[in-house]
Design a protein that fits this description.
By secondary structure, the chain is of the alpha+beta class. It contains 10 helices and 8 strands. A 5-stranded mixed β-sheet has the order 7-4-1-6-8, covered by helices on one side. Helix 4 crosses helix 7. About 6% of the residues have low confidence.
Length: 252
């Protein structure tokens, strides 16, 4: 879920463009290649606030709604005329620490309420398409980023040899080590921004026994020290695994 705070965002999928002006809310699908253009409007910079939400919560919310029509394909969708109370809920969920301070069941209920508001305003997450091998591997690693994942573990999970897995990932222009590192760093970013866990614990949660090694890898990935991200003393840009240089997509 995103809100464009300043400037314009253009999202392309299947040669169709979704144009989002400042103040607009939208839903971007998971495991779907998207082309994005961020356009600043002088004198302000481009900025978008993004709230990542697990797919399962969307599916649970749609089941609870009963009559919702779920698109057969996952495409970007805007949430038109989002009510003030829904916008306030989005802001609340994006504030670091707000959801993590709540009991798990309450936090889930808040997010499902927000999903319901988006759906009522026309932004419904489409059915998940069969993900690429890379996406399946990311999902597996995301299930336990602290685990000491190896190529052998992954190959066994997918019932193929290590050589076959390596070859199939190469065909998708990626590799096991690259996917493992990127998945862990994305998880680390979420933990740094949405929890108050000590950095040493964050490091352990994403598979690093050494906080200094974790900090170095985080800075290499995002260009900023994790403590600076938590303190809000530096800004960085991120969307998916690509860095966009025309503004900031803040991931709470």
């Amino acid at each position: 879920m995103i809100q464009v705070q300043s400037g314009t965002k253009i999202v392309m999928a299947d040669d169709k463009a979704l144009r989002l002006e400042a103040g607009a809310y939208a839903l971007l699908p998971d495991y779907r290649p998207l082309t994005m253009e961020n356009i600043p409007k002088a004198p302000q910079k481009y900025q978008t606030l993004a709230l990542p939400v697990p797919r399962q919560l969307f599916e649970d919310a749609y089941i609870a709604m009963g009559s919702i029509a779920v698109p057969s394909r996952p495409l970007p969708a805007s949430a038109s005329n989002l009510p003030e109370e829904a916008a306030a809920l989005f802001d609340y969920c994006c504030q670091p620490g707000n959801l993590t301070r709540l009991p798990g069941a309450i936090a889930k209920a808040r997010l499902m309420e927000l999903i319901t508001w988006f759906a009522l305003c026309g932004a419904v997450l489409g059915q998940c398409e069969s993900p690429r091998l890379e996406d399946r591997l990311r999902q597996m690693i995301e299930s336990d980023t602290a685990f000491d994942w190896t190529l052998r573990h992954a190959a066994r999970a997918f019932n193929m040899s290590e050589a076959t897995l390596r070859r199939k990932l190469a065909a998708e222009n990626t590799g096991f080590s690259e996917i493992l590192s990127d998945t862990r760093m994305n998880r680390a970013l979420a933990l740094v921004q949405t929890t108050t866990l000590p950095m040493a614990q964050v490091a352990l949660e994403v598979g690093y026994d050494s906080p200094s090694q974790f900090s170095a890898r985080f800075k290499e990935r995002f260009g900023v020290n994790p403590r600076h991200v938590r303190n809000g003393s530096e800004h960085f840009e991120r969307i998916g695994v690509e860095v966009e240089h025309s503004g900031a997509d803040a991931l709470p």
